[in-house]
Design goal:
Strands 1, 2, 3, 4, 5, 6, 7 and 8 form an eight-stranded mixed beta sheet that branches. This protein has a single domain, classed as Vaccinia Virus protein VP39 (Rossmann fold). The two termini are 28 Å apart. Helix 2 packs across helix 5 and helix 4 runs parallel beside helix 5. Helices cover 45% and strands 22% of the residues. It is of the alpha/beta class and 235 residues long. Keywords: Methyltransferase, Transferase. InterPro entries: Methyltransf_11, SAM-dependent_MTases_sf. GO terms for molecular function: S-adenosylmethionine-dependent methyltransferase activity.
């Protein structure tokens, strides 16, 4: 995995949410959470696994809605932040955070109703093997996001020291077919890359986001999008 050691650093974990989801980054947080809720739907009573849960943004959100959820991550420091977040939200007894490797999930086949991963596949060096494991432990649904190429993300990606894997529609379709998954829904968004929004204040970000959304809603919006959210079902 790209950046694996970086994500495990305590100082990175402690500052992760503040650096990415403050200022204009709050727009990203809201949109990503809505994408997860749109795809998974009502979660009360569902057994859910989040891969690469990080600081638990989505794990805690779904626990608050009644999911029986496990958040798995390779970074102990990130998981510790998630546990603090769960405690503050009053759901620390309704979920479990577990350290583990997404390439070797410690669960039996078909164990979860839904398995999902956000902000993960752009770092995956062997995406097919990770998706295969997600599909193995999923009984019904697999959901994940990717950064799209070509898009404005391509230029931003070139400037990043760590870089990111970019995916086209054909790339994702190939991954799904290889792992026994069927695409049932997709959303495409964000003409401007995420990093742009994190650098600007809320008020300015809101106005720029309105223009961004107008472009996304146009006839060519899907071709301009830098992020895609993929909803797949187990065959």
């Amino acid at each position: 995995m790209k950046g694996q050691e970086w994500y495990q650093a305590t100082e990175v974990a402690e500052e992760y949410d503040e650096k990415r989801f403050s200022r204009g980054g709050r727009l990203i947080d809201r949109r990503e959470k809505q994408a997860v809720l749109n795809a998974i739907g009502p979660v009360e009573g569902k057994r859910v696994l989040e891969i690469a849960c990080g600081t638990g943004r989505f794990t805690v959100m779904l626990a608050e809605r009644g999911a029986d959820i496990i958040g798995l991550d390779i970074s102990s420091a990130m998981l510790q932040q998630g546990r603090h977040k769960a405690h503050n939200a009053g759901v620390d007894d309704h979920l479990e955070f577990m350290r583990g490797d997404a390439a070797r999930l410690p669960f039996p086949d078909d164990y979860f109703d839904t398995v999902f991963a956000m902000r993960f596949f752009h770092l995956a060096d062997t995406p097919a093997s990770f998706l295969s494991e997600m599909r193995r432990v999923a009984k019904e649904q697999v959901f994940f996001d990717t950064f799209a190429g070509p898009s404005t993300r391509s230029l931003y990606n070139w400037l990043l020291p760590m870089g990111s894997r970019l995916y086209s529609l054909s790339d994702v379709e190939k991954l799904l077919s290889e792992t026994g998954l069927r695409l049932v829904g997709a959303e495409h968004d964000w003409v401007l890359p995420y990093g742009f929004y994190r650098k600007i204040p809320d008020a300015i970000a809101e106005r720029i986001r309105e223009m961004d959304t107008t472009l996304i809603d146009s006839a060519i919006g899907d071709h301009l999008a830098s992020v895609s959210y993929w909803n797949a079902r187990v065959e």
